[in-house]
């Protein structure tokens, strides 16, 4: 039974990043996120609960075209799912106070979601915001420097090959 629940939560987590977020389907958030979701890493200005996810989705829609998440690994245990992924997009609109650059960007992310009654009730994120900032602005990129999201992705891979 627990195996079946883990498979269902993995499928829901994948659907969120592979279908709902890339297509900007705010209505579909009702199907995958609990109304009282706690986002432990919500951006400044985001409202609480599922409305915060909708706010974040609108911010991404405004700031980036050609959005897609490349999922590298999904691990589930009990009611919790961890995803290692890479965001791909083109910075074609304002995002977090930054004017559009038309730059194509890619940056790693790790998402951890806890589910209750088939919907995400808690979310933790580890996006490589420094790498994104380096691609969009004047922060120089240092060659061969491991980043936190890469290190977490490697740790997840080592723990669950």
> Radius of gyration in whole Å, from Cα?
16 Å
Q: Could you spell the SSE succession in H and E letters?
A: HHEHEEEEHH
CATH domain class name:
Alpha Beta
> Helical element count?
5
* Percent helix: 25-40%
How much is the average pLDDT?
Answer: 88
Oligomeric composition of the shown chains: single chain
Read across the widest sheet, the strand sequence of neighbours is 1-5-4-3-2
Low-confidence stretches: none
Structural class: alpha+beta
Q: How much of the residues is beta strand, in percent?
A: 25-35%
List keywords for this structure.
5 strands, 161 residues, Nuclear Transport Factor 2, Chain: A, single chain, alpha+beta, globular
Report what the structure shows.
- This protein is 37% helix and 34% strand.
- With 161 residues, the chain is of the alpha+beta class.
- The protein has one domain (2-159): Nuclear Transport Factor 2, Chain: A, CATH 3.10.450.50.
- The protein has a 5-stranded mixed beta sheet, sandwiched between helices.
- The radius of gyration is 16 Å and the shape is globular.
- The model has no long low-confidence stretch (mean pLDDT 88).
